[in-house]
Amino acid sequence: MNNQKQQKPTLTGQRFKTRKRDEKERFDPTQFQESIVQGLNQTGTDLEAVAKFLDASGAKLDYRRYAETLFDILVAGGMLAPGGTLSDDMTRTEYCLFTAQEDLETMQAYAQVFNKLIRRYKYLEKGFEEEIKKLLLFLKGFTESERNKLAMLTGILLANGSISASILNSLFNENLVKEGVSAAFAVKLFKSWINEKDINSVAGSLRKVGMDNRLMELFPANKRSCEHFSKYFTDAGLKELSDFARNQQSIGARKELQKELQEQMSRGDPLKEIIAFTREEMKKANLSEQAMISIIWTSVMSSVEWNKKEELVTEQAIKHLKQYSPLLKAFTSQGLSELSLLLKIQEYCYDNIHFMKAFQKIVVLLYKADVLSEEAILKWYTEAHLAKGKSVFLEQMKKFVEWLKNAEEGKEITCTSWVLCVLRSCVQS
Question: Which residues form the W2 domain (predicted)?
């Protein structure tokens, strides 16, 4: 038997020192700000020298950590407190965007400084966009001249794609809108943007981020009308923006009308009520009959779920269109409206492959229902058709068009015979 006393187990191990790189560094922008301010004071108004200094400093200073501080200094000369005022206890420089000359050429030069910096240090891209959003919210804290410079710079940056048009969301802030700051800022911004690019490019950027239908929000609710928007921006020398906004509102109104018509049809509302409602909305929105028939066609064809089988969809379409032919007839009192409808039918049948073989039957049905006249059909056939599916649809319509032409000739012969009979009876008497 072993009488030796058993030793108690002991914990052994090695204590590791925390590596310096793993220690969380305290956020202290003071030293960073002093370095940037000192460099800007040395370079002064020479923006080429500023760009070179910023490029070189990125290797020594922590741009990633202090991006907001960096952009605050470049724009306002020092760190900004909430609301847009400069922090009193921080070093500042007189060489920044807000102290520069208020002209487009100087703002373009500053835009180049920012572009070069962000191209060199790609990770600053997101931080820069966030900075612009923040600056827009601080507009009330800036002077009119500072706002003008920022507006021109923002327009140039939007034009060259350095920032997204989504930053404009900050301008819809209730306080900025209420005091007219947003609208005044937008005038300068859009002028510099359109100066760099055309209105089509501006419109494309706005559509991309869903801002194209929100421009009215630059004004308070009691002034949020197309008339007020148009007058304000036209008087400011931005008629192209006014026209764009008016067009967007018209498109929005058409979409709403189309949606409402579609819902009425899906509910099975009486045709008389639908026609009366459509006439009223057409008058209210100042729409032409050609525009209205296009909306009606789209609503009619969107109010039903179509069969996926080609052989069954034609029968379904004929039945459905027969039901709504009085509605189509009510808005095709002009030859141009009939042609517009024919083009919409052609386009629809081409874009929806199951309807390719249904085109001729749809046209014949609407001819019999007095929606389409022989004049409109012949005009479409000879010269007014679209290129989409042209050969297929013209071939489908060939026999029917021949029949129409023969019918027209028959009418002329009958009419001539009747005139001769009348003349003979006059002579005999």
Answer: 247-414
